[in-house]
Design goal:
The protein folds into four domains: 106 residues, Beta Barrel (conserved putative lor/sdh protein from methanococcus maripaludis s2 fold); 104 residues, Efflux pump adaptor protein, beta barrel domain (Elongation Factor Tu (Ef-tu), domain 3); 63 residues, OB fold (Dihydrolipoamide Acetyltransferase, E2P); 75 residues. 22% of the residues lie in helices and 32% in strands. It is built from three helices and 23 strands. The protein has a six-stranded antiparallel beta barrel with strand order 3-12-15-14-13-16. A hairpin with a 6-residue loop joins strand 17 and strand 18.
Length: 421
């Protein structure tokens, strides 16, 4: 039989070392590789990015005179409107064709006639009563004279008393004459009142009665108004009063007003009016001051101008003071009511400012002008972010052809805006 082979002790020890060293080596290689790969390589520093300029359109600001125009509104009303009433009772016998709704009439025209027979009879009766009273008075005067002659013929030295001279009877007869004459005058007035006349030249707003109707004293017959001129009550805001020279008395110079229809903007018709007076107190609710503008010949009967009707709403334009040495800022360039962005002409940088308005309207905000160092340009583009000192690139205005690139786009230097930082 052959001899069996057994591993030597040296060989077994080497095998164990290999089995232990292999995992340890693999682990060590992994640790070294992780350490090497986890270290980021140093990158070369890139130069900082150059800030981009803010692009905007600009407008050159110039000192100027700015005429203030105050806009207001009101409703046309008649200067005088009255209600015709009957002063005596009676039946309506005649109605003038001029007493129709909207019809014109002249001053002193007879608009309505009442039946006058009873009033004519009253006049005749009163005249007869006057004649009787005068005859009785004449008789008493004769008797009084005869009584004085009789007293003198009897040779009495003392003066006669009133009873002897019939003075009480004479006074009574004179009083009867006066009463009869007064009654006659009243009867004549009542007869005249059967004819209701127009107190002025005017127009009928509404007729309330018709032919054959029986009316009493005080019955409303019609509503009429004057046509010689009309009036418009216009409110003026408290902040606007100082820009107007309003007339306070009849001797003050009237202020011109232009009126346009508030219901038809396309008509283009303008009515000339004049502010002739102001009300004595501010309105309790709005604190506005109401002024009264007068329009002559509102219905164009003499001038042939388009009529301005009673009750028509109108818009008024009043020329106020002319503001001097000011700058008009387009409303679109103003942010948050009083914030604007100026552009330094020399350095082309932004200069935000807070302005103090002197006047504002739907188009412009007007501020006092003062010389600003190098800041005569106004940024017109809406800038969401406008830091002070930021560089600006001016956008050429291709529509006007006045703008170019850089500082050549603004022309010569003008006056700047009066602002406060």
């Amino acid at each position: 039989m052959g001899q069996s082979l057994k591993p030597s002790p040296q060989h077994g020890r080497a095998a164990r070392i290999v089995r232990f060293a292999l995992p340890v080596g693999i682990l060590a290689v992994g640790v070294i590789a992780y350490a090497v790969l986890s270290v980021e390589p140093k990158k070369a520093k890139s130069p900082p990015a150059k800030p981009q300029p803010i692009r905007t359109k600009v407008k050159e600001l110039r000192s100027q005179e700015y005429p203030v125009v105050i806009h207001t509104h009101g409703i046309v009303r008649p200067h005088s409107e009255v209600t015709l009433t009957a002063q005596v009772p009676g039946r309506i016998a005649r109605v003038n064709p001029g007493l129709e709704d909207g019809a014109f009439f002249a001053a002193n025209d007879v608009l309505i006639e009442l039946e006058a027979v009873d009033y004519q009879t009253a006049v005749v009766t009163a005249e007869a009563q006057v004649a009787r009273a005068r005859a009785a008075h004449a008789l008493e005067e004769t008797r009084a004279k005869q009584a004085r002659l009789n007293w003198e013929d009897l040779g009495y030295k003392e003066a006669p008393n009133e009873l002897v001279l019939r003075l009480p009877q004479l006074r009574e007869s004179k009083a009867n004459v006066d009463a009869a004459e007064a009654q006659l005058e009243r009867s004549k007035r009542d007869l005249e009142r059967t004819q209701i006349r127009a107190p002025f030249e005017g127009r009928v707003r509404r007729r309330n009665v018709g032919l054959g109707q029986v009316v009493g004293a005080g019955t409303p017959l019609a509503s009429i108004f004057t046509v010689e001129f009309a009036e418009v009550r216009l409110p003026i805001a408290g902040r606007e009063i100082r820009f107007l020279n309003l007339p306070e008395t009849a001797a003050d110079e009237p202020l011109e007003v232009e009126l346009r229809s508030a219901t038809d903007d396309a008509s283009g018709v303008v009515w000339k009016a004049r502010i002739v007076r102001t009300e004595g107190a501010l309105d309790e609710n709005s604190l506005d001051l109401f002024v009264i503008a007068r329009v002559n010949d509102p219905f164009g009967r003499k001038s042939r101008h388009p009529p301005l009707r009673i009750g028509q709403p109108v818009r008024g334009s009043i020329a106020g003071r002319v503001l001097k040495d000011v700058v008009a800022l387009p409303r679109a360039s103003v942010r948050q009511l009083d914030q604007v962005v100026l552009v330094d002409r020399k350095n082309l940088t932004l200069m935000p400012r807070t302005v103090v308005p002197l006047w504002s309207d739907e188009s412009n905000i007007v501020v006092s002008a003062s010389v600003m160092e190098q800041a005569t340009l106004l940024a017109m583009t809406h800038l969401v972010y406008a830091p002070r000192g930021a560089k600006v690139e001016i956008i050429p205005d291709v529509t006007s052809g006045a703008a170019g690139a850089g500082t050549n786009s603004v022309g010569k230097t003008g006056a700047g805006v009066g602002v406060k930082p």
